[in-house]
Write a structure and sequence with these properties.
binds iron/sulfur cluster, 4 domains, Rossmann fold, alpha/beta, 6-stranded mixed beta sheet, 26 helices, 32% helix, Phosphorylase Kinase, domain 1
């Protein structure tokens, strides 16, 4: 246990710089130690004015992050044989012995396919890289997935399908250069606040030069600032996009010859768009034809159209097709590969992008490689120092497939790290039942008392952001080195170091002999050479000296000369260099409303809270702003359901029911109700929104449709 001690890699500095560990905007933070002998005892946080992505701005979450760091921390490994026993504190030696013995036993009896890991966009890239190497390389199973599956895997598969590769092609400067910004399926004001403030400032400064168009069934702080708000019915995003395509053709905004030179599939797409007349589209979307025509006219007249989206698009049974539907419009109208234009997915988590780069989903390998390509597997095997064939060619299990495998009794070990799936997965009662049948659940976690800890046998205390050094990539492909500036509590250790220790104990001493996170990153960066997500010119040293950099950043690139935009030459990483237009008919919701469950429940976030609140619940200011979950319901629906403001409602779906206080508001469209997703079973105000959601997902991205389920609402 001498090796990789966080103490050797994180001497406490006088001040530090880091990327905010909350959302995918990836703001730069400057941190200073608490004043000696006084004050509140927290590190002080302010925006890093030198950080090119955020220019000194922060939101309430980033500004208060230091208040969460010491609250309710795990400081020693915990173990219990049975879930009905209390945990006992044990040594790392015993914890790792138990874990490694069980891994060996499962491998011998059932094969490595009976082991699965579920990681997190909270991981640093170094954590992701070593976890992936352990599971896919050392164990030889591709059962490594991450909670990014719930967040943006449809964006990954949509980019790959349409543009030949993952990789958001835009950058934040495009917010200042676009003359039209379409925000679809994103409440950017609450979920990516610093980016939204940047847009808002520009809107105030140049009111006429920027058109903001919002597509969302709810009126939100985002739509309040919009020139046009299309409150479409949930599940009709792709219908709307095809309707815009129809009108772009009608308006002459598409040049078939130019499109054919850079993309395949235009005749098929044009034929499909022809069928989506404004009358048909507006009837299905539940909007006025004038609004649709205005959106199309603004798009057609713009010199730079930027589309922003997040989970409202991605969390859908047709998530990949909807992402492709957005990209179709950009390819057809020439709004891509130039300043102020392009399809720009905003990632939810601080390092979901780094996870994609490190191969942190079941079908991926580092450097945007695939387990399905023999040459990719061979390259990574060589780089990792494993023999040919070590990486399996078989599909790994996505997170919902891991749950289903537990139901069938096929998993002997489920290893969860830096995430709280017992709040964030859909159909929670089914998840609880499945996990209860898994013989060994291991949890790497920083905070005590999470809902997932309640189902774990072995808990490994993790050093979190601030206590470990490493890099994260934000939504605009900018890589920031986050310095370690505090000591972890007790015996907590960085996730990458835990995974490396397990790798060595399994006999792979050479492959996991890292002395520092900088060494891990150097190994990762080298294998990205020549790939679209090229980090090979980056190192901890360069990032510490010159600050955050955007990839592609090949070896030899001078600091500050990463590439802000992709596809600027309209040559795409496909066999013939052309992008693909995707003609797919809309399917609608996975579970449409009916007579028994007549309303559509959609879920989302509150500005101050982060995910399952393991951190933000400790911030007094945030708790005061969002003291409890509220069911938003339209006055007409409230009357039909016999509900008054503040009454307790029972919301039920085919999978369960929750009770929650009612907020009557005309800011949500009739037929749709809204719940925040933050509150899990461990909270005083428990309201498990995801208990109600179904598990159907996009067949391509395997991302569950967490944004919509059919429900009934009654007075409780
Ligand atoms: Fe952190 Fe996101 Fe807020 Fe920036 S916008 S401070 S990254 S939570």
């Amino acid at each position: 246990m001498e090796r990789d001690s966080p103490c050797t890699t994180c001497p406490v500095p006088a001040q530090a710089k880091a990327q905010c560990p909350y959302c995918g905007v990836g703001c730069g933070l400057e941190l200073k130690p608490p004043a000696a002998g006084g004050g509140h005892g927290f590190w002080s946080v302010r925006g890093d004015r030198q950080h090119p992505s955020s220019l000194g701005q922060v939101c309430v979450k980033g500004a208060t992050v230091a208040e969460t760091l010491d609250c309710n921390r795990l400081s020693t490994p915990l173990w219990r044989e049975q879930r009905d026993q209390p945990f006992e504190a044990i040594s790392w030696e015993r914890a790792l012995t138990i874990l490694v013995e069980r891994i060996r036993a499962i491998q011998a009896e059932r094969g490595a396919g009976a082991i699965a890991m579920y990681g997190s966009g909270q991981f640093l890239t170094e954590d992701y890289y070593v976890a992936n190497k352990l599971i896919k390389g050392a164990l030889g199973t591709n059962n490594f997935d991450a909670n990014s599956r719930l967040c943006m895997s449809s964006a990954v598969s949509g980019y790959k399908l349409s543009l030949g590769s993952d990789g958001p092609p835009c950058c934040y400067d495009d917010l200042d250069l676009a003359d039209t910004v379409v925000l679809i399926g994103t409440n950017t004001a609450d979920c990516h606040p610093v980016l939204f403030q940047r847009l808002l400032k520009r809107k105030r400064r140049q009111k006429e030069a920027l058109q903001l168009i919002v597509v969302d069934p709810r009126a939100t702080a985002t739509s309040d600032a919009a020139d046009l708000h299309l409150a479409i019915r949930p599940g009709t995003d792709l219908v709307l996009l095809h309707g815009v395509g129809h009108l772009l053709l009608e308006l002459g905004a598409v040049d078939p010859g130019r499109v054919a030179a850079t993309a395949d599939g235009f005749p098929e797409l044009a034929a499909l768009w022809q069928g989506w007349t404004p009358e048909r589209v507006c009837a299905l979307c539940g909007i006025e034809e004038e609004a649709l025509r205005r959106l199309a006219a603004v798009w057609a007249a713009s010199s730079g159209v930027l589309s922003l989206w997040s989970m409202g698009v991605n969390q859908s049974v047709e998530g990949t097709a909807t992402v492709a539907g957005i990209i179709n419009l950009h390819l057809a109208s020439g709004q891509i590969g130039k300043p102020g234009a392009g399809p720009f997915s905003l990632t939810g988590q601080p390092n979901a992008m780094g996870g994609r780069e490190a191969g942190g989903l079941a079908a991926l390998l580092p450097g945007y490689r695939s387990i399905h390509e023999a040459s990719h597997r061979a390259t990574i095997e060589r780089h990792w120092g494993f023999p040919p064939g070590a990486i399996s060619e078989r599909d790994g299990l996505s997170v919902w497939e891991q749950i289903e495998a537990m139901e069938r009794g096929e998993l002997g070990l489920w290893w969860v790290a830096a995430t709280n799936p017992l709040v964030s997965l859909p159909w929670l009662d089914r998840v609880r039942q499945a996990v209860a049948s898994c013989p060994l659940v291991v949890l790497n976690e920083a905070y005590a008392g999470t809902e997932t800890e309640a189902v774990a046998h072995l808990v490994l205390p993790a050093a979190q952001w601030s206590e470990k050094e490493g890099v994260m990539t934000n939504s605009e492909r900018r890589v920031t080195l986050s310095q370690a500036f505090r000591q972890p509590p007790g015996e907590a250790r960085p996730d990458w170091s835990i995974f490396a220790e397990v790798g060595r104990r399994l006999g792979f001493v050479e492959q996991f002999s890292y002395g520092s996170p900088a060494e891990v990153y150097a190994e990762f960066a080298a294998i990205t050479s020549g790939r679209i997500c090229d980090h090979s010119g980056l190192s901890h040293g360069l990032l510490a000296e010159h600050g955050p950099q955007q990839w592609p950043f090949p070896s030899g690139t001078a600091a500050g000369h990463g590439q802000p935009r992709l596809h600027t030459q309209a040559i795409y990483p496909t066999a013939n260099g052309k992008a693909r237009l995707v003609a797919q008919q809309p399917l609608g919701l996975g579970e449409p409303p009916d007579a028994n469950f007549p309303l559509v429940l959609t879920v989302g976030r509150y500005l101050g809270h982060w995910h399952t609140m393991t951190r933000t619940i400790h911030v007094e200011r945030v708790r005061r702003s969002h003291p409890e979950p509220l069911l938003e319901i339209h006055p007409a629906d409230a009357e039909r359901c016999n509900l008054d403001e503040g009454a307790l409602a029972r919301v039920s779906s085919r999978r369960g029911a929750v009770s929650v206080k009612v907020q009557i508001t005309d800011r949500i469209r009739p037929g749709t109700v809204f719940l925040p997703m933050h509150w899990g079973a461990a909270q005083e105000q428990a309201c498990e929104a995801n208990r109600l959601m179904h598990a159907l997902g996009c067949p391509v991205s395997k991302q569950p449709e967490l944004k919509a389920a059919a429900v009934r609402v009654e007075r409780a």
